[in-house]
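Quick one, T. Sequence first:
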Amino acid sequence: MKNTFWPILAIILLTASCRKEAENVKNKATSLKYLGEVALSHGDLLLSNRGALNKVVGQDSLLVYDQNSRQLVLIDLKKKIPIHTIAVTLDGPDFFDLPFLDATIRNDSIFILSQNYFSIYDLEGKIKLRFDKDQLNNSNSLFHISDFQVMEQGDILFSKVPLEVMVDNFTSKEKPNLFFTIDTPTGSISEKPVFSPKESLIDDKDRGYYNDLAFHYMTVSNDSIIYSFPFMSEIFIYNLQTNDQTKIEVPSKFAENLRKPITVADNNDTKKWADYIYSSSKFSAIERDSKTGFFLRVSTQYKKISDGLNQSSKYITLIDNKLRKIEEIELADKVFPNPIVSNGVVYLLKVDQPVEDAYTFVAYEIVK
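Structure tokens:
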């Protein structure tokens, strides 16, 4: 045995080492390439230096709402210029309800979720269809609708935040779910059996509370809803065809992967809540690139450097279509932690806007 043990062990270790090296090389084949600053011109429009919404629509367009001029502006990401505007009127039959929470364009229609309505307009701003909050409240439960996705078959998938997340002393009579769809021609609603995970603590508030850090994000990939939360790094998958649910570990190397909750007493103290928000970590929404099928997420790690003063570091993570982390790098530029991705390029809006008549982003290319 002594004569054969060490050669066999060496072969095993060599094989494991080669396998690990192969995995590393494979991962290194895809990465994020820094492209520098990208300025999206305002053209002849008089716009503020920072727009709202910033939603990618289609492959190469960005939809922005300019609050000063009350215009929805469509910007071509290749040409880097505005190509269409829609005037936002606040009265009359074609009124828009503010603030806008989410929006997209599909074919010849613009879909907008606002505080009180879900509305569908043509590209000139004429109303085609509108649902108010009561029409969307199929379960008669109390919740906040945060975003939506237009599905391939035409249904609209909505993401809703249960009131338990927002109010620390409230409990629904029935367990609140997180998603529902609406068939726009008929108005019929289908609730999805997806619920807040135990980590959100909405069923165990004696252990603490997350407030709006437990508002979930979602995106859609094939037949699945991919959703996550700001207070943790784990990602959840719900298959719309099979109703199967899966939790995936996508840990950060730099940010705390699970934020500690705040107590209910401290949550009701404005100063302590503010201190809590700017401590520990926070994870952004997961954005999917339709060109590569990959996902992006930004994590922020806060650190107190003196009394009343915090410092934050931001990191961007590239995740493959099987939700495996490929790369995580620190963002050197001062940017908002809300990535948008289009046609293989990731855009992050700069905090300081250096150009007066343009929206300036920092861009990275997904290189395969």
